[in-house]
Write a structure and sequence with these properties.
The chain is mostly helical and about 425 residues long. It is built from 25 helices and no strands. The radius of gyration is 28 Å and the shape is flat.
Length: about 425
Amino acid sequence: MEVLAEKWPSRSTRDFLEQRSIDSTYAGTHSTALQILAEKWPDETTRTFLTQRAVSDEDEYTRRVALQVLAEKWPDETTRAFLNQRVLDDKHENTRSTALQALAQTWPDETTRTFLIQRAVDDENENLRSTALQTLADKWPDESTRQLLTQRAVDDEHESPRSAALRALAETWREESTRTFLTQRAVDDEHADNRCFALQALAEKWREESTRTFLTQRAVDDEHENPRSAALQALAETWREESTRTFLTQRAVDDEHENPRSAALQALAEKWREESTRTFLTQRAVDDENADPRSAALQALAEKWREETRNLLSHRVLQDPEASVRGAAWSGLGKLHSEFGRILPTKDLYGWQPYLDPLEPVSPDHIEAAAQRAGIRPEGIEAQVAALSAHCGWDITVGASVANNASALAEQENS
């Protein structure tokens, strides 16, 4: 379409583009045609057509593009009034947000600011309220905006606008009063994800001992596993010291929920790649009562200590009581062989959970799909399967068992 408009900018080309913007079965064609029309024929006819498509097109992305082009090409009061109306009337939150942002970008005056404040408080959609708050912070970073954000971070009934307000405050006002407020919200916000963000922002913006003490407390005391995990990750990222390592080692065992234990294990492997960490992860890969931390330990070991972990992975393929952990061990073992070996044990062929159970045979269709994704030609699949089976210690088309994995077990016992 671009070539047509460039080489033959005729009436028939224009008609063709208008028709494609309506009739094409692919929504991307709609928006591309509208952009070309506005670029090549920026006249009143095109403006009227874009105004129509900004209302009538059934695809929200196309309506968004039409609104953006109108604001860019015809930034007058008529367009402004139209965008205001679309903020209120469009049926999709993304299109309404686009109209709101275009207003702030093109007409950053007090009238627009007042309109955004109204939408930040009164709009029925939480995502539009979030967009309004973030846009206010970007365009009007003054004390009155700060006060509004502080209020909405507490009073909004939905977690998304509260989160948007917290983010804008942390990014724009890096001051002691903001720190105090974030510390309060890290404890008092009713939604776990918002408490997570407050903890992460504190660690990123205020890397001081008092922040460290607070995160250490929240890693134990928060009632939800996600903020505890976030606190552990922030501690490992910001304070890579022996006392942090000791604390993470403790939480990897003592936390009552599997997610913080997994987070602690992953952080230890990432930040303290030493033999004592390897020994500890090897222990947790066997002893943790939950499948997720055992999988996390095996994955970290396979990533950081590749060859040293091979025997453990071979053993856990057979011995772990959970299929998901056996699959994680198999994926780690396969990764030592090839990309094909890494993705084959995964159900979605992306290299991460959910995993297949290595005790079960792998179907020919799954093998073929994994080979295709790994870039193996059809005539090379049989050889790759044989090589991977030899590497793992069992015929993957049959499934692992004590009998056909005897070589791997013997190697484990001799290590």
